[in-house]
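=== Structure Prediction Worksheet ===
Name of assembly: unnamed complex
Input type: mixed (protein and possibly other molecules)
Chain count: two
Listed entries:
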Amino acid sequence: MNDSHFLHGFLNPKSVAIYGANNKGNSLAGLQIMNLIKSSYDGKVYPIHLKLPSVMGFKAYKNISNLPEIPELVVIVLPSNVVPQIFRECGEKGVKRIVLISGGFRELVDDRKNSLTEEINNISNEYGIRFIGPNCLGVYNNWYGPEDEKKSFNIFIWENLKRSKFSIASQSGTLSCHIWYDPENLDLGLSRSLSVGNEANVDIVDCLEYYKDDEYTEIIGLYIEEIKRGKKFLELAKEITPKKPIIAIYVGGSKAGNRALQSHTGALAGNSKIYNGLFKETGIIKTDYVQEFLDIAFIFSKGIIPKGKRLGIITNSGGPGAMVANNAENHGLIVPEFSESLQKELKSALPLTASFKNPVDCTFDMDLPYFYITLPEILMKSGEIDAIIQYGVVGFQEVLDEYLKYDQIAKHAEFHHQPDEFVDTLVQKLLQPTMKNCQKYSIPILYINPMNFNAPWSKKLRKNGAMLFTLWDRPVNALAKVCEYVDYKQKRK
Amino acid sequence: MNDSHFLHGFLNPKSVAIYGANNKGNSLAGLQIMNLIKSSYDGKVYPIHLKLPSVMGFKAYKNISNLPEIPELVVIVLPSNVVPQIFRECGEKGVKRIVLISGGFRELVDDRKNSLTEEINNISNEYGIRFIGPNCLGVYNNWYGPEDEKKSFNIFIWENLKRSKFSIASQSGTLSCHIWYDPENLDLGLSRSLSVGNEANVDIVDCLEYYKDDEYTEIIGLYIEEIKRGKKFLELAKEITPKKPIIAIYVGGSKAGNRALQSHTGALAGNSKIYNGLFKETGIIKTDYVQEFLDIAFIFSKGIIPKGKRLGIITNSGGPGAMVANNAENHGLIVPEFSESLQKELKSALPLTASFKNPVDCTFDMDLPYFYITLPEILMKSGEIDAIIQYGVVGFQEVLDEYLKYDQIAKHAEFHHQPDEFVDTLVQKLLQPTMKNCQKYSIPILYINPMNFNAPWSKKLRKNGAMLFTLWDRPVNALAKVCEYVDYKQKRK
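=== Predicted Assembly ===
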């Protein structure tokens, strides 16, 4: 447990005051107070507003000094010029934690001397305040009240996300909260998220320190434009990665990238070589792509980590099999040719036109239990592979149902619609033994169904625990990075 | 027009006989005859079956000799050992075109001498037959009857796809037809598709030759495991790429990839360096990823081709802006710092906290006409950029609607649900002037909305012609490849 870490209070406040809160939809502070309602937050909410008597049904206060208690957290969404004054008022009230959403500090050309930042830093030192921001979006805790799945402390995420043990610390607000708009896009879920903005007081290193001993964090995602305390970061990362994977996006190094950073968080121009070296040394998984960032976290979140980098490929089509094999090897995975005994075992069970050397291509085969259960089990038992990519888990019944809409077909076809319950049971029967085997052998299967991620069959597979992708590019690249990390861990043992 | 090319008849037959056709759902030939029905094919259909009197409502024939006419196309889906006999029967009947779906030829270890392939080649030579395959999935023509959008000649695609001028030739069946399962995943559409399989008779070079002068083909997609006629391929590609872009996936080069090819189409081990050189010399756009293959084609399919590689970035969030800038430069695009006059123009119109050097980051700005119309127009008019990536075109009304589901919010909120017609009109107003400007300046905008591709706002944007992506990785990489091609074309002028 890490209740004692100062960030714990930022994520678990029993009361929160919001400067700028209002009843509008097109204002950040309006959205934030609505998120508290939406996420069933049951602490006290104190809007602070000069004119409104109440905001979203909560009694409003003109000034923090009028509040009946010292709020455990203060959120500020007002223009930067009034922020020093608010900080001082908060200090006088006894406030110890502030989330400073407002932009307009060092990222502005006009404040290159950071005089405003210096001012609020001085005030917070004077009163013993810790603050997150400025120029951030806030904090999120999906385990606020662990016993009640619906409850979270959320001021910045627009959707209801499922719980997981993936936690984020990010110098970009968007990367901390706006990449999951629709959970239908992804099965990853989220634990905590901390948008640190310009890092005038709290930085990514603080977040790492907190996540290190956090029982609700097993995978850490970072978005980095600049690391301010390099030595401490290095120490912490080295300590964490043997236990919890860290996935990092680092932006910087290119001319355009550096220019973008300067006007974003005011970060100084970075050198991507130095960062790449740092990541390599500490076993941090680096990616340039937000989708890959999520995919890698997704693989880890399923909890079945491969023991090595040998990939078995099961497919019912040669092209995707060949592309997976080719890309896998080019990204550092090993696609071993199977031993003669394993080839023999596979050959005896496969159709004549199938291939069995790896990839295993069973062509247009309709024997579902064989495809979903037997084949993966043979591979897992063999001891010759560490992970499986399986292409072709399509919702064939949906395809047939489409044909049945045509009278001429419906009249003559020797097949018919299967009731949903039948398909439900079928998917369950096909997947459950294999999911157990994945656990037993610690061999993950990355499934691919080129149909829509939310097509009926896809949904059923996902519901039964399948790690599902829609095309075959992403799983290869993400798995390769997972296996690189596994390699790093093993070499350090 | 290229009616005279021998492949024209394969795509526009007035009659087709199918060996192996049946009423089953789990058989290739069953699916094929159903596709003919589903795609409103109005030619004659002759199932050939030893026992069934009719198939899917079409009168069946025991033998091709009994058919009342010479079918313009014959499709064979029967085991390889009976194929030579069928070829001979077809020859005797006077058939000139066969699509040979059956596998079990040179890709099998047992037929490394290709004796079966040799046999059918000899027979087809004897009778003047051209055939596609073996080991393929068939052909597709989305312009069979150009006047009727619903009509196509389709034996292998399971969905109804929209028409476009993107045509495919592929040595993988899946790559030729099973990457669009659900058109909801993609707005690309399809024109023709030719699955060439083992290429015993018709090869990818024939397809290129056909697509070269085909009025319904403006973008060509290839999946290649092996090129049999290298010299002719080179000649044709050089002739085509100045007019029509060719996008190619080449698989091979890695050990595992080569092994996969051998058991897939029987292709010989390839050397990726030779192929990369070939592609570079001919201006073929090469990719290793099926998603990128589709994305590149998608950008071309919109018909607005950038004139150079200078990228303008519009965003309402710093992180995605910085990532786009960084990845763009790393992939060969130029992200120019705007001229002082352009910066001045932007600065005067943007909020205080915004940045305007490129990326243009307008932060959490709610002025939609400015974001959707004015900003892109300022960039286009400036002459300083050739393409735009715009992050943040979110469906904010949908987000607000979600909040309104909570009583406490609905009771106090100063905003309300907007009727669908209002939103429809809004999107139309926001997009149409910009779509016109894209045409006028020949500057494409690649929009990004991290919400689901089929969320209401996304759907409306797409309906109004927007080129939409869900995250910011793919558009950068695909655009970089499009611009490389533009560069190739300009250098050859």
